[in-house]
């Protein structure tokens, strides 16, 4: 077996980080072209953590704190949000570089090692969420980081080392990586823990297993000492909330779609064929381990938005690593075992190529982007204005509303029983419309109006999928709120006001939130302000509402804008 040159491989790792990470860092901004809602979700959490809040304890999120701490620490050090995100990716790649190098050098033949190194680094440094969509976005960066760590753990556990004396380092690499997965996104930890343990036992790495377990427990103890035992209880409670949520039971296709949809059917066949061909080639233990990993591959893809089968590149690496060990002979279809494994690896590579190429070249695409007409995602945020978005996505406001043309036989179907997600609240059936474009403009206008009406410094609960109002002005972040809403009215009890957008980002989520509020005591709610964009209610007795601006003020005149009216607003 032709092994990689350790020095050359280390140089390749540093070269990839320098070229692709450097391309990310050259601009003094982070210009996104999609998923501004996800970017605001990230900003909401990161800025809270930078102010000293603790994930899960002070902020409701099913994503682990380690997905945000590197960015928050850089914000605390004085970086803007955009630069903090870009630098965090490079720093994470540098931190993981020794583990990537170690696993490749101690276990893989040269071709598989090169593929492994490149794949993991591209996952860490990419500026797209995945798939073949070339839009620049910070969305779900933790999914990419999770897959990168999974690659490291799986290769280290499934493939026995080629040399003796590696157990201590192997155990540290696996233990720290699994702990990081638990602290980034527990889906990965849950999906691969048991297969990794079985793989270590089947490959004779028992000492590695004990060291990995001890390392993981040490990390858990350290987190407990630093954040208190309540951190784990709050983390588990957040996960339970999401598991029971009707808002996002699955972020993409159903599980059968991830297996059999036309886009993924080839990947499923390649995975099944790999297990069969490995066992036919005499690698029965390896085939068994891959069979145990398969449900984890599918489940993680099912849980991730986009359902990208990032595991295809890992499958190719494993097959290429097993190739030199294949026995002589032919399988039932007449192929030699080496040809069967090599051919399946080639299929996996071909299926993964569009996705991995998109990941790899995204920093270059970002570097070459024309941002002359882009605007800040969070105007007025000082150094955090370094996250940019196109002026069209920022300023153009588009609504989706029912077509109301009874004379043409096209009634708007506003009646409650005729709408999929009726929005009824306090005896009023609200207008059915959705904000399709212009989230930044709407949030900025709402907060400006609130400040002019005297509500600065208050804690406002927004009834929508996300409501980062405090990022856009002098409002307080709501303690315990969920920057991305999953249910249970997280943060509502700590709020002073409830704000209901006339045209929310996600009407279905607004309907669910208002239904949850209606199940409580709504007598504590008092309407204090109504404009074209929103209705504001005081929660509880509180203080007297600020006096609204006079009718001649611009803020009040904005209520005359042409937006849909609810059933009780016709007059």
Automatic annotation (TrEMBL):
Output compositional bias ranges, type Basic and acidic residues: 562-571
Coiled-coil boundaries: none
Is Endoplasmic reticulum a UniProt keyword of this protein? no
The superkingdom listed in its UniProt entry is Bacteria
Q: Quick one: where's region Disordered?
A: 542-571
- Transmembrane parts of this sequence: 6-26, 84-105, 111-130, 142-160, 172-201, 208-232, 258-278, 285-305, 311-327, 339-361
Q: Which UniProt keywords apply?
A: Membrane, Transmembrane, Transmembrane helix
Instruction: Please identify the protein, giving its name as recorded.
Output: DUF2029 domain-containing protein
